[in-house]
Design goal:
Length: about 170
């Protein structure tokens, strides 16, 4: 699959609400090997160019990119994930464990993956779809900035990631 654009929700720390964020300008790619006979032998990688994170709010994006607060993108321009184990959870559900690297720190995470469908698209491509979810604690990767939001409350450490993936079969 190489994929070049995407959508993922993110939380606005000022209002404690979920905010849509997109990666623009073809700044992430992934490769997926799916073993149709034994999906537990499948594997995948993902590389995100951190500066492509775009929540649609310029001030928030600059805050996320900064050295002092969240991703320190000048020093750590990429976020990567490499799968290490795929386990069948029953039906179309899988648990994919892998190494997530953010800000120079690599930690294992487990993704809940649901196969959604296979289809032949109007452009002649064979596609497969997945819904992926996991919860990570941002502090595990050194993202510790915190302040009281104007709306009250505090920032939480746990971040829930929900991602829809559409993978296109490469020819050859």
């Amino acid at each position: 699959m190489p994929s070049k654009h995407g959508y993922a929700p993110c939380c606005d720390p000022r209002t404690r609400t979920t905010t849509a964020g997109c990666c623009h300008r073809c700044w992430f790619e992934g490769h997926l090997h799916v073993d149709g006979e034994d999906p537990t032998r499948s594997s995948g990688t993902l590389r995100i160019v951190a500066t492509s994170i775009d929540t649609g709010v310029k001030d928030r994006d600059e805050h996320l990119r900064s050295n002092d607060y969240f991703f320190d993108m000048p020093t750590y321009p990429e976020i990567t994930f490499t799968s290490t184990v795929v386990e069948h959870g029953g039906g179309d559900s899988y648990r994919v464990t892998g190494d997530l690297s953010i800000k120079g720190t690599t930690k294992p995470v487990t993704l809940d993956v649901e196969f959604t469908r296979a289809a032949h698209d109007p452009m002649g491509n064979d596609r497969i779809g997945f819904e992926i979810g996991c919860t990570v604690n941002r502090k595990d990767w050194g993202i510790t900035w915190n302040a009281s939001p104007e709306a009250g409350g505090v920032l939480v450490g746990d971040i829930t990631l929900d991602v829809d993936v559409s993978a296109v079969k490469r020819s050859g």
